[in-house]
Amino acid sequence: MSGVEPGTPCWTDLAAAGLEDAKRFYSELFGWTGRVSPEPAADGYTVFLKDGRAVAGVGPPATPDQVPIWSTYVATDDADLVATRVEAAGGQVVVAPFDVSDQGRMAVLSDPAGAVFSVWQPMAMRGAELFNAPGAMCWNELVTPDPERARDFYALVFGWHAEEQPGEPYPYTGWRCGTLIVGGLARPLAELPADLPAYWSVWFAVADADATAARAVELGGAVLVPPRDTPKGRLTALRDPQGALFSTLAPRPVRRVTA
């Protein structure tokens, strides 16, 4: 098992028809380099590296009509069992569990509101090698119009418990797995399109949210939620040139108390 505990987001990847365009955009935005899988069956799947460590991936869509999307992968020690729990809890198995060469075993699933996520049972590939640093995944959040049903579903599937966290100007709901808060739960923001279905959002840490948003626009992306301060730091929601949504966060600096 990897250093990421079961029930914790461990990987993210982008499904995009224009692989080269996606690689160019994110490499210039985050300073990533790419490592293309040599396996023919991988169909050009590329692992993004930040300072030589794996942080995310990009590959072709599963079907020609799939919209570009960033996926959240949750670590598990039994992908088949999770798939069974998803169906029992009212979700759907989008892609049944299967082995990805010798890298791991995965499944693509959705909750009752339609939010799609994946699970990863690691073998040779253990997940991301860097978290919570500029250019690396730092947070995952379920955005759903039906948080009450989501609370029941994810409790049954992963043993998560939705827990109110103090915050200003409003409290925040986090997913607790054991002793850790492993993600968040939120209603859709007013700035986002009203017809967006429930989805899992992926956040990447950056040093400067405003500069990253400006650079994304220069590269052909768009700003959906302008940079703003939150209890976690300065947040902005972006869309890449092919339409995939993602967020960036410049964490608040840690205050050091001196004598």
What does this structure look like?
The chain is of the alpha+beta class. Helices cover 17% and strands 42% of the residues. The protein contains 4 helices and 16 strands. The strands form 2 sheets. The chain has an 8-stranded mixed beta sheet, with helices on one face. An 8-stranded mixed beta sheet has the order 10-11-12-9-13-16-15-14, covered by helices on one side. 39% of the residues are buried.
Could you give a short account of the major beta sheet? 8 strands, mixed
The gyration radius over C-alpha positions equals 18 Å
Give the number of DSSP strands: 16
- Helix and strand succession? EHEEEEHEEEEHEEEEHEEE
Q: Helix segment count?
A: 4
Short description:
The chain is α+β, with helices and mostly antiparallel strands. 17% of the residues lie in helices and 42% in strands.
SSE blueprint:
Elements: E1 9-15, H1 19-30, E2 33-36, E3 46-50, E4 53-59, E5 69-75, H2 79-88, E6 92-100, E7 104-110, E8 116-122, E9 137-143, H3 147-158, E10 161-165, E11 172-177, E12 180-186, E13 199-205, H4 209-218, E14 222-230, E15 233-239, E16 245-251
Parallel strand pairs: 1-4, 5-8, 9-12, 13-16
Antiparallel strand pairs: 1-5, 2-3, 3-4, 6-7, 7-8, 9-13, 10-11, 11-12, 14-15, 15-16
